[in-house]
């Protein structure tokens, strides 16, 4: 199997409550692939500037990530500056400097155009569509986006829905894309656009999946201390798609299991600062936490129904 992610490799300037701003490795493709590397060998298509540190590329390669398709261009690397609120949930975007990312035109090499699993990270929809045109044989396509792209390129996003097997959005993005206020009506509307499945990211409250079988809830794995929530959504997607790439099957049950893996992967993300924090996690830690998550979320459903029917 093969896993391809097209997105951003960047530097994030993060301000956490009570701490000074710190610049760390970031970007949607970086977070995604760092998480995915536990279960797969992802390939990144992205661009960085001449200021991007070789040590950061070495870190990614050390995780087993293929960085050979990351283009280095003259100029500065994409940077985002964010400040988190005291609740560690809300945040303000203080500055965005696109740098070389402003002229990024993702050309997928011939040998990657038949990748089994494709993740279209948070980039302009016109670029996502361009990647889709190059990867017509991808067996499973996941797509992520944000509010500014929905407001500017809604028609292009809607046109990609029939090619989208799994769409990652948060509450506000679902409402914006659908034009519906009620989250369930909004999800139904988006599925009618052609997307096979929609997962709504709800941060500390987990996620909700809408697919052909109905609705499934994914409570977040409980963590005692949230250090930095940056990258949690991309780590969630990385764990999800890496599992699908690993098992080599994409039916409804596989996707539902994959999202549980993604949920657990995101819990590791928020406990550390920056993608390098994943280096402290061993594969056995993932297995252990996944085992706990299954126990926490598996109820004796038949027994409960029987008891309340008496």
In short:
With 310 residues, the protein is an alpha/beta fold. The protein has helices at 28-36, 54-62, 125-134, 147-160, 171-178, 183-192, 232-247, 252-270, 283-297, 301-308; strands at 3-6, 10-15, 22-26, 43-49, 70-73, 79-84, 91-97, 117-120, 140-144, 166-170, 198-201, 207-211, 214-218. The chain has a single domain, classed as 3-Layer(aba) Sandwich (UDP-N-acetylmuramoyl-L-alanine:D-glutamate ligase), CATH 3.40.1190.
Structural notes for this entry:
The chain has helices at 28-36, 54-62, 125-134, 147-160, 171-178, 183-192, 232-247, 252-270, 283-297, 301-308, and strands spanning 3-6, 10-15, 22-26, 43-49, 70-73, 79-84, 91-97, 117-120, 140-144, 166-170, 198-201, 207-211, 214-218. The strands form two sheets. It has a nine-stranded mixed sheet, sandwiched between helices. Strands 3-2-6-7 form a four-stranded mixed sheet. Strand 9, helix 4 (147-160) and strand 10 form a beta-alpha-beta unit. The chain has a single domain, classed as 3-Layer(aba) Sandwich (UDP-N-acetylmuramoyl-L-alanine:D-glutamate ligase), CATH 3.40.1190.20. Helix 4 packs across helix 5. The mean pLDDT is 94. The longest helix is centred in the C-terminal third of the chain and has 19 residues, at 252-270. The termini are far apart. It is α/β, with parallel strands linked by helices. The radius of gyration is 19 Å and the shape is globular.
């Amino acid at each position: 199997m093969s896993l391809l992610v097209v997105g951003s490799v960047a530097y994030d300037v993060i301000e956490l409550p009570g701490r000074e701003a710190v610049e760390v490795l970031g970007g949607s493709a970086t977070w995604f692939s760092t998480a995915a590397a536990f279960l797969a060998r992802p390939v990144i298509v992205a661009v960085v500037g001449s200021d991007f540190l070789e040590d950061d590329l070495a870190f990614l390669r050390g995780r087993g990530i293929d960085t050979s398709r990351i283009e280095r261009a003259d100029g500065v690397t994409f940077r985002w500056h964010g400040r988190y609120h005291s609740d560690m949930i809300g945040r303000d975007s203080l500055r965005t400097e696109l740098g070389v990312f402003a002229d990024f035109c993702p050309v997928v090499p011939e040998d990657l155009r038949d990748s089994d699993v494709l993740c279209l990270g948070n980039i302009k929809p016109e670029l996502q569509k361009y990647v889709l045109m190059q990867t017509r044989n991808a067996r499973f396509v996941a797509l992520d986006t944000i509010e500014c792209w929905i407001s500017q390129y809604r028609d292009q996003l809607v046109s990609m829905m029939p090619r989208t097997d799994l769409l990652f959005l948060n509450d506000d993005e679902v409402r914006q894309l659908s034009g519906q206020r009620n989250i369930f009506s909004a999800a139904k509307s988006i599925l009618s656009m052609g997307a096979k499945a929609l997962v709504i990211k709800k941060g500390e409250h987990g996620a909700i999946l809408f697919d052909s079988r109905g609705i499934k809830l994914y409570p977040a794995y409980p963590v005692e201390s949230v250090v930095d929530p940056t990258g949690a959504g991309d780590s969630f997607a990385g764990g999800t798609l890496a599992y699908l790439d690993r098992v080599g099957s994409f039916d409804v049950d596989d996707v539902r299991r994959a999202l549980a893996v993604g949920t657990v992967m995101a819990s590791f993300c928020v406990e550390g600062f920056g993608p390098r924090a994943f280096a402290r996690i061993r594969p056995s830690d993932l297995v252990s936490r996944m085992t706990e998550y299954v126990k926490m979320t598996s109820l004796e459903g038949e027994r409960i129904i029987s008891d309340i029917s008496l």
